[in-house]
């Protein structure tokens, strides 16, 4: 399968990034998100993420609500892995593991089914954006709580000036492209 991944064109990926000022709240950082509506933008982005993980044994890809739901299933498909959603409260029907965490502008909670990860399963966590890293840090805690082994943290975009990756010493943090 590794021969089917196209080489990464970082400049083409940079062209897919859109910045929206004052989001998620006025006065805070600008929200940067990938544009995937073009003819091949989504495929390029997924291929770039998959190229980083394709040679590793990945059992599960976890996608964080909501934009991780866009990239996670496609990446899981490319890696021949399962997909697990990490959700906001009260969205999952079975017993859940839960973590509450602080944001720059409040707090939030994430949940995952208690049986979603078996001890020792190798997981990649994926989201659209690495800013300060709080949401991903909470997801890392959930994975460790359930006994999963973290292969890496994948992001479509990173706001590297916010130094979110500094929260993840010892973990593989991968993003395309760094801004």
Task: List the defining traits of the structure above.
single chain, 179 residues, alpha/beta, five-stranded parallel beta sheet, two-stranded antiparallel sheet, 4 helices
Task: Give the arrangement of secondary structure elements.
Layout (H helix, E strand, L loop, with lengths): L9 H5 L2 E4 L10 E4 L6 H13 L6 E5 L3 H12 L2 E5 L9 E8 L2 E8 L8 E9 L3 H12 L3 E10 L14 E3 L4
Parallel strand pairs: 3-4, 3-7, 7-8, 8-9
Antiparallel strand pairs: 1-2, 5-6
Shape, per Cα inertia axes: globular
Number of strands: 9
User: How many angstroms separate the termini?
Assistant: 30 Å
Widest sheet, order of strands? 4-3-7-8-9
Query: Mean pLDDT, nearest integer?
Result: 85
Task: Classify the helix fraction into a percent range.
Answer: 10-25%
Q: What gyration radius follows from the Cα positions, in whole Å?
A: 16 Å
**Beta-strand proportion:** 25-35%
Q: Characterize the main sheet.
A: 5 strands, parallel
- Report low-confidence residues grouped into runs of 5 or more: none
Count of helices?
Answer: 4
What structural class do the secondary elements suggest? alpha/beta
Order of helices and strands: HEEHEHEEEEHEE
How would you characterize this protein structure?
23% of the residues lie in helices and 31% in strands. The strands form three sheets. Strands 4-3-7-8-9 form a five-stranded parallel beta sheet, sandwiched between helices. Strands 1-2 form a two-stranded antiparallel sheet. A two-stranded antiparallel sheet has the order 5-6. The chain contains four helices and nine strands, in the order H-E-E-H-E-H-E-E-E-E-H-E-E. It is α/β, with parallel strands linked by helices and 179 residues long. It has helices at 10-14, 41-53, 68-79, 134-145; strands at residues 17-20, 31-34, 60-64, 82-86, 96-103, 106-113, 122-130, 149-158, 173-175.
